[in-house]
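User: quick one
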Amino acid sequence: MARAVSTRRMAVATAAAWIIALIIFFPILYTIITSLKTETEAIKGFNLIPSFTLESYVTVQTQSGYLKPFMNSVVIAVGSTILALFVAIPAAWSMAFSPTRRTKDILMWMLSTKMMPAVAVLVPIYLIFRDFGLLDTRIGLTVMLTLINLPIVVWMLYTYFREIPGEILEAARMDGASLFDEIVHVLTPMAVPGIASTLLLNIILAWNESFWTIRLTTTNAAPLTAFIASFSSPQGLFWAKLSAASTLAIAPILIMGWFSQKQLVRGLTFGAVK
Amino acid sequence: MNLRTLLLGVSSAALLCGFANAETLTIATVNNGDMIRMQGLTDDFAAKNPDIQLEWVTLEENVLRERVTTDIATKGGQYDIVTIGNYEVPIWAKQGWLVALDGLGDDYDVDDLLPAIRGGLSVDGKLYAAPFYGESAMIMYRKDLFEKAGLTMPDSPTWEFIGEAARKITDRSSDISGMCLRGKAGWGENMAFLTALNNSFGGRWFDEKWQPQFDQPEWKTSLQFYVDLMKDAGPQGASSNGFNENLTLFQQGKCGMWIDATVAASFVSNPKDSTVADKVGYAIFPDTGNGNHGHWLWSWNLAVPASSTKAEAAQKFIAWATSKGYTELVASKEGWANVPPGTRTSLYKNADYEKAAPFAAPTLAAMDAADITKPSVKPVPYTGGQFVAIPEFQGLGTTVGQLFSAVLAGQSSVDDALAQAQTAAVREMTRAGYIK
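Assistant: Done. Structure below.
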């Protein structure tokens, strides 16, 4: 009897998980479906059966090439993530293993910068970029995305590092490890799941960032967010083309997320149950 | 070193210098059919100007406006040519943000530009932007439904007739709404239509002392008329419908009438997209017998920001893209029906165009009837037909648009919305220093 209840519970839980997953994934699924419709079909209303035309993909590729913004997205997302990790790992180490009275305040202050609306600092940032010749450059955007994602990266790494017993690092120190060895050869390998999930999450955040990437670029460094934005139209039909552009833009990150989901989940639940 | 080697070296160096001197123009534009078509035809410009290369930045209208404003205001110099509406041109020109277009060349024929359009792009007699395409507003109606209902569209219809006709041809069982109008909130969406409607009802946004006029009877009459009409003869969910949504409804045969931008005529009469292409008639924007047909006038224009360091090359491109020659180029490649409309008088005297575009004459009539310097029968301190050409209008227009859209959605009453609009407008105009 107990087994039957357990099976039923399992079935209900599985069904609930599937329903929730479907609800979460549905906007992406509908974007993909819409991209396979004609413009007239797309605007007609809710319909899950497309005519499976690829004309929107052809138009999108002909109108504005995919490769250049794709490469820009890769460089900016990966570059900003690596740069953020270089800065965040030592910062998180110091906060996790040598905390001071003000460490919590500093962490909160770092996070509070994320609460400020980006548009509030648009003009000063724009002027700085203009004066340093960083407008429409990959390096400028890489630095910008590093800075805006840094608080989250530091916070995540800090949380993971706190789960690692300090005694292990002390033992390494007693064995004569330098600070560099301690971070690179002892701490980092132990925190790989946490670092990996931070890396993946930061790539996703950087890939999807649209406020700064659209406003600080024109043609040379414009990534896929700018590519998508170019298909919205005040006069004319554009839903299918916009969906095709969006599908092309999210495809790489979707595939990456699919293949790394184990690491991502492992990292995000690292130390959740002790 | 022989002579041949020397000549080769000199030629290579000259070629390299040529490449080094090639100027790249960055053009910011919106994504619409005419602009995208122009991008596809720039080989012609490149052949005539091998020393000028073009880079395009296409953005959604509001993002483009914000990007370009930020860049010009901070002198970022990211763009050499910007696509802006006739709302921005006089405001930006007065701010010193745009270069006066005095280098368009002798054969540009500036006098051929439609007077109403040219007037809206000039400040102190100087042209600050060249029109790429222009539009007014008119009625697009289903001739077959009118015939079935025993109706005949007059040459100059009144709102009273339009209201009755819309109710008569509404057939809910066949999913046909007698009237499709903009309801989606926004200064360029529902407020464009409602401002023109109010103009034709004898109203205005502000009196000569910049006092908002939402507490005056004209606004109440026009807004009540609009809400009642949409309730009786409009499609479901009209408060979410903008230009694109109504275009689709009309193309699918679900609207008896649609009053909107004249540029829509080429879409609804295109048999590739429209199921009613051969059944569409056109008529001038209605009035209330006062001769005011709304004064809707809009154009997308190319301008050179003052921060550009390549103004000369930029003007060369603008002269090409807005010339009579470009019109002929489009006609030769894509047919006369696809040329950008509403900018040049000569186009409307062209027999080929009139033959290919049955909407040419009503479009010209609508544009000729628009005078943005006198949008209302009452005196006004501003210019602009379906908008008020002051910087504050974007924000204020959208706020008022949200209030009026809520009325259409049944979330508030006409009286409440007008009272709130009056309060918001008085506050904004006082804050901005118009009301002393």
